[in-house]
Amino acid sequence: SVQQQMAIQNAQEILQKLSDKCFKACIQKPGSTLSSSDQKCISQCSDRYMDAWNIVSRAYGERIKREQLRH
Amino acid sequence: SVQQQMAIQNAQEILQKLSDKCFKACIQKPGSTLSSSDQKCISQCSDRYMDAWNIVSRAYGERIKREQLRH
Amino acid sequence: SVQQQMAIQNAQEILQKLSDKCFKACIQKPGSTLSSSDQKCISQCSDRYMDAWNIVSRAYGERIKREQLRH
Amino acid sequence: MSLNSLANDPELQKFVAAKELENQLAAQVHHLTNICFDKCLESSGNVSELSSRHTTCLQNCVDRFLDCTMLITNRTIQRMQQGR
Amino acid sequence: MSLNSLANDPELQKFVAAKELENQLAAQVHHLTNICFDKCLESSGNVSELSSRHTTCLQNCVDRFLDCTMLITNRTIQRMQQGR
Amino acid sequence: MSLNSLANDPELQKFVAAKELENQLAAQVHHLTNICFDKCLESSGNVSELSSRHTTCLQNCVDRFLDCTMLITNRTIQRMQQGR
Asked: For the domain with range E3-81, which CATH number is right: 1.10.287.810, 1.20.1110.10, 3.40.50.1010, 2.60.120.1440?
């Protein structure tokens, strides 16, 4: 369905941004494997990004509601 | 009209770039309001960006004309 | 043909990225001409970027093959 | 149903407009998260859990960014009307 | 008029090509402003008015960026022809 | 051939899917080059030729970036299934 396709596209876009951000933040010199500390850093980075996404999404929704009430 | 739609899209793109640039430049730690110095910084930043846009737009147009004369 | 159009689009995208990257890296204060050292820096920067593009392209192809064998 | 009459179908138009709005809102959330993550979390390195300070910063960041956009939009409209 | 004959209408094609060119030019101006604003103004912090030095820097920035693009384009074409 | 039957033509669909895949792969190569060039070459300033160290760094960069993407994708799917 269109709905599903959009959800997938949406998820792909978050994953792309997450990879970029967390790779840049966690991998200074790319070696021959991801060390366990690299993996920990990436996992934390991506968890925090998803947390941030949820908070931002809620705050944005609330702002839109407030603006609609004002007009 | 198509013309108007393009002008609007054009304006939206400038506004988006402006918000990104001036927010990053002026707001270090987002607080509970925009202080008057934040507002002043944002206003100056956006005025200078629009000035720059006009100068760049003119310089680009002149360059294109010069290139066309050369060929 | 579609194939050609894609190759052209592909080349344009590389050229765009290259210009951005090498201009930012090589031109600190834009003067009234490109000095010969500016030109040397830009040429080197763009050669290295094309080298990198070839290496990345090959490494990515190999990774995809490895992943396909695993599944 | 022909292509033409399909394109003019009011139900379809409403559906497409709603989808586009949804897309725009999702794109804006991506954009805001990207900016506010950098403003509020980047400098604090590896963060094992969001503190209330991070949360407040993220919420303020969304509101201040939208204030900033509104300020700039109004200012730009003014400038245009003055024909500068 | 059918879709097919509409798509082959030379007037429409000219109109679409002109619009596309306009779009490309506008996109290029955005891009150049973005780059040249950072090169010429960023480091000078809050600027209450553009000085002639800023203006010259912006104008040079546009020309040098386009020189840079032409240099790279020519070099890349050469490399491709040498089959490297 | 009508538009409708054309859109359902399996040969055309295969062709379009192959083209789209090609586009996606090319876009991914651009993206990886952009990231890995910065990681592996930026800090070394003007480089007159790629050393074997640069080459190894670029190759590792591609593999580690893809590892990183897979790690994050799996983690995100887990999080979603836990309904967090």
From this structure: 1.10.287.810
